[in-house]
Amino acid sequence: MDGDRASSSSLGAGDGTQHVAVLSRRQNALHQFTQQSLPACKPVLTPSWVITSFFLVGVLFIPVGLAALRASQSVVEIVDRYDNDCIPEAFRSNKVAYIKDNFSPKNCTRILKVHKRMKAPIYIYYQLDNYYQNHRRYVKSRSENQLMYGLKYNDSSSCKPEDTNNGLPIVPCGLIAWSLFNDTYTFVHQSVELKLNRKNIAWKSDRDHKFGKHVFPFNFQNGTLIGGGGLDPNIPLSDQEDLIVWMRTAALPSFRKLYGRIEEDLEADEVIVVNVVNNYNTYSFGGKKKLVLSTSSWLGGKNDFLGLAYIAVGSSSIFVSFVFLMLHVKNPRPRGDAAYIIWNRKSTTN
């Protein structure tokens, strides 16, 4: 009996020792993790390392900024605001009444001069200002499932108030589709109408995966209040690229959307006659409408901000590196000098 008790007590002591050892290892690992004493790269920020890093950032960023700025400035743009000039003199004091009058002609002619040679393809955009497509209620007023599956999907409550009309569902439903931009443009060059390529202006992913190939417009713009353009009920939504472009809502109140492309070059000093049908109502909320013709570069459209930002950051980095260099030369500080420790300085002063 006594021997059994002794053996059991020795086993219990061994288990306790092992348990304490496991806890000790766990606590040690936790201590290393919380104190960040695990193996890691810990660069020492010496003055020479910091000065060199800032200088290299400047040397790299400035050439990139200059290249981006040069690419942006190589883009040729023609921007023409036409919303005010396309209102007849008799209606200048009441523009909203004119745009809502279905019997007033909306045709307008604009003359654009090419100041610099424009190489094809020339992209045509319409630009809207003070138009908040990012409004929460506006953005949510659509049905992704209905755009893909049509009348097979019955729940369109997210589209209210443009979900039904006369008891029948609307396809496509929602405020975004209802407010579709419907100004049109035709271009005449040397008495010949330019051909516009209006295919592939929308994202391929949108055409293939967000708008159904067998979904057709139904009961669209049949109500008493018409918001924007109509849709051909015989063309599936996946081929209605104007709608697809419009329904990719913009994040900012000033935005451009692609209308088409001109597939031929335009020489400098040539004149383009644009016949505009001014249908879209931006007058009720003080919006602006502009027509934009633009070429492109390897960086895309005209955008000076990216190049200027790179140049500004690179110049600032080089300036900071020179400031640090002068400070280091004037007041060098040896690394690891114990005389600079606070408590040492206090003791020497006493």
Q: Could you outline the blueprint of secondary structure elements for this entry?
A:
Elements: H1 2-34, H2 47-73, E1 77-81, H3 95-100, E2 107-113, E3 122-129, H4 136-140, H5 144-149, E4 164-165, E5 168-169, H6 175-178, E6 184-189, E7 192-193, E8 196-197, H7 204-209, H8 241-247, E9 255-262, E10 271-277, E11 288-294, H9 304-330, H10 342-349
Antiparallel strand pairs: 1-11, 2-10, 3-9, 3-11, 4-5, 6-7, 6-10, 8-9
Helix pairs in contact: 2-9
Word description of this protein:
The chain is an alpha+beta fold and 350 residues long. The chain folds into two domains: 45-75 and 299-331; 76-295. 37% of the residues lie in helices and 16% in strands. The protein contains ten helices and eleven strands. The protein has a five-stranded antiparallel β-sheet. It has a four-stranded antiparallel β-sheet with strand order 2-10-6-7, with no helix packed on it. A two-stranded antiparallel ribbon has the order 4-5. β6 (184-189) and β7 form a beta hairpin. α2 (47-73) packs antiparallel against α9 (304-330). The longest helix is centred in the first third of the chain and has 33 residues, at 2-34. It is extended, with a radius of gyration of 34 Å.
